[in-house]
Structure formats: structure tokens, C-alpha cells
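Methods, example record. To illustrate the input and output format used throughout this study, we show the complete record for PTS lactose/cellobiose transporter subunit IIA. The sequence lines were provided to the predictor; the line carrying C-alpha cells was produced by it.
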Amino acid sequence: MEETVLMESIMGLIVHSGNTKSECMEAIQLAKKGQIQEAKEKIQLANDSLIEAHHSQTALLSQEARGEKVEVSMLLIHAQDHLMNAITFRDLASEMIELYERIKGE
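The corresponding predicted structure is encoded as:
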């Protein structure tokens, strides 16, 4: 894979995963204030960012499936770590919003 394309995919993973975590953190803070609908909207934005991160990951996986070598680097490992953390964070944020919603009685 051309190094520029590889770097774009890696940076896409990092950026979109980071955006996912940020949107989730904002969603938790909104839920804590009782702004449940706004929190759910932030989770949807987080889901959108996660889809973009998955597009970056899919580009790398598709390349490897075609038999083209993907150079594994610390940056790629770091990017994958960001993605896994973003997924976990999104799942936990969704659960927390549901709990805050129950507490509020909505």
C-alpha cells in the first residue's frame, strides 16, 4: 500500500475514534444534567464518527484481503487501540445514559 494512503487510513482511524470518544463524553455530561434527548443525539453523532472510523479500518482490511501487504507499525497499533477504546466507550456511555434516564423517570 502506498505510504500516503496507509497514513490517511491510520489517521482516519485515530481522528474518528477520538471524535467518537469526545461525543460520548459530552453525551454523558448532558445525561448527568438530565438532558437525555440531547445526550442521545450526541450518541448518534458518536455512532456517525464510529462509522467513519470503520471505513478507514475497512480500507486496510480490504487491502490485506486482496493480498497486498499492510505494514504493521506502532502507529497502526495505536490507531486500532483508539478504535477499540472508542467502541467500548460508546457502549458504556449508552448504558450510562439509559441509567440516568431511569433515575430521572423518563
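Annotations derived from this record:
The mean pLDDT is 94.
The chain has three helices and no strands.
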